[in-house]
Amino acid sequence: MREVISSPNAPAAIGPYSQAVRATGTFVFLSGQIPLTPCGELVQGSIAEQCEQVMANLDAVLKASGLGFHNVVKSTILLSSMDHFATVNEIYGRAFPENPPARATFAVAGLPRGVDIEIEMVAVA
């Protein structure tokens, strides 16, 4: 079973992907979110402002899936620079006060629209 999930409270896909996909009725795979508002405006402020928007987008997609951050089992954080790690870690960590998911964090050569952060997640219903 495969179900595409979409939330109007997060930015629409800007390419050939879905905001999230539920697989076999249990797993939900959330596409990477960048700091776009639900209206599609790019947040160009500090890494903290960008991260806050990314987390809000992920929260909206999780809620559209009937889930929350407590359902996340794996996440991947992509950063334009590891200099952003501490700030992102603090903001990201607020979503996971207990039993955080497995995670990988990478610095990459570039991200869509020149942003500084992208986060993707896998959740379990």
Fold and architecture overview:
With 125 residues, the protein is an alpha+beta fold. It has one domain (2-12, 19-124): RutC-like (60s Ribosomal Protein L30, Chain: A), CATH 3.30.1330. Helix content is 22%, strand content 30%. The chain has two helices and six strands. It has a six-stranded mixed β-sheet with strand order 1-2-3-6-4-5, with helices on one face. Helix 1 (47-64) runs parallel beside helix 2. The radius of gyration is 14 Å and the shape is globular.
Throw out a few tags for this protein:
125 residues; alpha+beta; 60s Ribosomal Protein L30, Chain: A; 6-stranded mixed β-sheet; 2 helices; 22% helix; globular
Question: What is the N-to-C order of secondary-structure elements (H for helix, E for strand)?
Answer: EEEHEHEE
Question: What is the structural class?
Answer: alpha+beta
Let me know the average pLDDT. 94
Largest sheet: 6 strands, mixed
Number of domains: 1
